[in-house]
Automatic annotation (TrEMBL):
PANTHER family: OS01G0798800 PROTEIN-RELATED. InterPro entries: DUF4220, DUF594. It comes from Urochloa decumbens. This is DUF4220 domain-containing protein. It comes from the Eukaryota.
């Protein structure tokens, strides 16, 4: 029978071995599983384990180094100890391996966006731990030890020190302020009003592009773009640092609409993956991109090559040197532990080698990516995870949540207990929320956004004012296009605060779908977007719109619960109960949503519609159009920092929509924040834009003078416009 003394003695003997092997297990897990944080379909348990491993990995490595330091210090006072004469030098060899563990894996440098801001703290930790480790090695290494083992230790020390400082450098590179400097900002115009003219020119060029594409008559410029760029540019986008692209770059990005929706969806997903690697890993991905301050940098290329060489060669050399060294003097268990440390550390390093090959010098090696995918596929199979990516979009239905609670009262009661620890909302979102595979809806969403942009450019956008008005619309444009200006209730619902509009339209959409006699939406995208926007309102309000209220969802749930209280008719579904109560309600969200749904159902496609009518689906056309506008409205007002932050948990559909809007020529958050005051009339801007288009070599001042002469000869030109032009002439000179 083991006594407490025996347990303490065993722990004193095995403590260091357990710590180094535990640290090794954490690093191997992170090397294999951490890259799949970018997938929204990752099991929450694995995501939790990644978080715990990320936080605990550094702590365990530091604790192991401290234990090693104390152990060696204690052994120095007992030089006659058998351990001192046995595995003393072998234990010191573990120190640089622990340094490598402290540096982390290539596949994860930060778990959250905020972790990147702590790079200076990691520099301090790296300096202190390297200093302690070198001191321990210098003071405790036996002069009589095998020279081959000494050389192996030196190699591992070099690799460990490099790895230890590689992490804080990666964190500094991905910190938000430094991330901003990585993008080359568009040059400021010498003339303040030149940007106004350039915007007008861009709008006219983009409209011309869309019209010609619609007529299958793309000009030479568009055809050249289409032939040169068979897929979208996938480098990290300026969207994430709230930088606006120059207008000539925006024109080139219009190639997006020439792609098949599936190709555009895939390319933008790859771009998001690249951005994830930039912000949350140590991978240095860059290429010949003019938007990068660091682009095809020779120093970075050479440094990456050196690091890759060290990663591959030094561990192999250390293993060989240890194999041929005199190991007879060491304990058998410590020899086995050393072999395990060397081989598994080398294996986890091999997994990161393909990631280093993404630099431009190695992009021609096509075998690197398939090898990387195969290694990770095998590892994922062993741990029971899918080897292909799932792209999930969260879905929240207010009526669906109540229905789930009613059918799962036991689970609902457990979730209700969470209010005592402040996690009731989190548990309810987790247990009663749903998710859908975006791959099934991605093509449809892409097609919807592109069709919306194309329709807007061809039929509505004529100048700067109409461009801004459309980008500010959150459903009004759809109502106007479908002749719904006289529908007062529908129009007023869009004039309410945005979060309240989302709630009302979500309830109204559900009521229209389930109302007895109403037609069924022939395309499920309306419900898909409705439930996603409700999820944002419930769980991610800062991305929905600044100032959105999470409490609206809870208030609506409480109102519905109060209305349905005492309703025991088991022959009715929950939706039918809600509709029956809505008919009697006189106030509240349910009443407003029911009134809105009633007016929508008066459109063709409503409750009394004839399926043979040519406008049978007009109601759903309006509902879908409003939801598309709301989705674009929200995406165009979300900060880039929030988009980048969401990538840590797999990303949001809203980020994908924002990228798609940018590539389709619509206004982004950065564009909206940098709107200028219009100083020219529409006619003058058009004249200047046409002159710029026809005489691109002319200076701005010359063009403005010419416009001024034309205005002088035109009686209808206002005095204010002439004065504005004179001011511009002075600025241009």
């Amino acid at each position: 029978m083991m006594t407490m003394t025996n347990v303490v003695d065993w722990w004193e003997e095995w403590q260091l071995r357990v710590l180094v092997l535990g640290s090794l297990a954490i690093q191997l897990y992170l090397a294999v599983i951490a890259p799949f944080r970018k997938l929204t379909g990752l099991n929450p348990l694995n995501r939790l384990l990644i978080w715990v491993s990320y936080l605990g990995g550094d702590a365990l490595a530091i604790y192991a180094l401290a234990t090693l330091f104390n152990r060696q210090k204690r052994l120095q006072h007992h030089a006659s100890s058998s351990v001192m004469n046995g595995s003393h030098d072998l234990e010191v060899l573990w120190a640089p391996i622990l340094l490598m563990h402290l540096g982390g894996r290539m596949t994860i440098s930060a778990y959250n966006m905020e972790d990147n801001e702590l790079w200076l703290r990691h520099v301090g930790v790296a300096i202190s731990q390297v200093t302690v480790t070198v001191y321990v090695f210098w003071t405790t290494w036996s002069p009589s030890a095998d020279k081959r083992l000494f050389i192996a230790a030196i190699m591992l020390f070099i690799l460990g020190i490099v790895r230890c400082f590689e992490k804080p450098l990666a964190l500094k590179r991905a910190s938000f302020n430094n991330l901003v400097t990585y993008f080359v900002p568009a040059l400021m115009d010498e003339i303040s009003t030149k940007k106004e003219v350039e915007l007008e020119k861009y709008i006219q060029d983009a409209k011309h592009f869309y019209v010609q594409r619609n007529n299958n008559q793309l000009d030479d410029f568009a055809q050249t773009l289409l032939e040169a760029d068979t897929k979208l540019h996938t480098a990290p986008n300026k969207l994430f640092v709230d930088y606006a692209y120059a207008y000539h770059d925006r024109h080139k990005m219009l190639i997006c609409i020439c792609l098949h929706p599936e190709s555009a969806f895939k390319a933008l997903r790859e771009g998001l993956s690249e951005t994830f690697d930039l912000v949350y890993t140590k991978i240095w991905r860059h290429g010949n991109d003019e938007n990068w301050a660091i682009s095809s940098n020779t120093f970075v290329d050479k440094l990456s090559m050196i690091l890759m060489g060290i990663t591959v060669i030094f561990p192999v050399a250390s293993i060989v040197l240890f194999q041929i060294s005199h190991k007879e003097a060491y304990r058998g268990i410590d020899i086995k532990v050393t072999y395990i440390l060397l081989y598994i550390t080398y294996f986890s390093d091999l997994i990161s080698v393909p990631a280093r090959l993404h630099i431009s010098s190695f992009q021609r090696w096509s075998w690197s990516r398939p090898l990387f995918l195969q290694v990770n596929a095998i590892a994922l199979y062993l741990v029971g995870l899918p080897s292909f990516p799932f792209v999930k979009v969260q879905q929240h239905s207010l009526i669906g949540v109540l229905d789930a609670k009613e059918k799962n009262s036991f689970v609902a009661s457990i979730a209700g207990c969470g209010k005592w620890c402040g996690c009731q909302d989190l548990l309810q979102r987790r247990w009663f929320g749903r998710s859908k595979d975006l791959y099934r809806q991605g093509k449809d969403i892409t097609s919807l956004i592109i069709t919306h942009a194309e329709d807007a450019w061809i039929n509505s956008i004529e100048d700067v004012e109409s461009y801004w008005n459309l980008c500010d619309s959150r459903g009004h444009w759809t109502l106007e296009r479908n002749g719904c200006q006289e529908m007062v209730i529908v129009w007023d619902s869009l004039e309410k605060p945005f979060d309240q509009s989302v709630l009302l339209w979500h309830l109204a959409t559900d009521l229209c779908i389930h109302c007895k006699g109403a037609s069924v939406d022939p395309e499920p995208t309306s419900l898909f977007i409705s439930n996603y926007m409700m999820y944002l309102l419930c769980a991610n309000t800062e991305m929905l719109l600044p100032g959105s209220r999470t409490s609206l969802f809870k208030d609506a749930c409480n109102q519905l619960n109060a209305i349905l209280k005492g309703e025991d008719d088991k022959h009715l579904t929950l939706t039918e109960k809600v509709i029956s109560k809505a008919l009697k309600s006189e106030k509240g969200y349910l009443h407003d949503a029911w009134v809105l749904a009633q007016e929508l159902m008066q459109l063709p496609g409503g409750a009394d519609a004839d399926a043979d009518d040519d406008e049978w689906n007009k109601m759903w056309k309006v509902i879908k159009g409003v939801w598309v506008e709301m989705l674009c409205f929200s995406a165009g007002r979300c900060r880039g920092y929030l988009h980048a932050k969401s990538l840590a948990y797999g990303g949001e559909l809203l980020t994908y929509v924002a990228l798609l809007m940018s590539n389709a020529g619509l206004e982004t958050f950065a564009d909206r924040q940098q709107r200028m005051k219009l100083r020219f009339s529409k006619e003058d801007r058009l004249k200047l834009a046409k002159r710029t288009q026809q005489e691109s070599g002319n200076q701005a001042a010359g063009m403005v003078v010419e416009i001024q002469r034309e205005n002088t000869a035109t009686p209808s030109t206002s005095t204010a416009t002439t004065q504005a032009v004179e001011v511009v002439v002075v600025e241009a000179v």
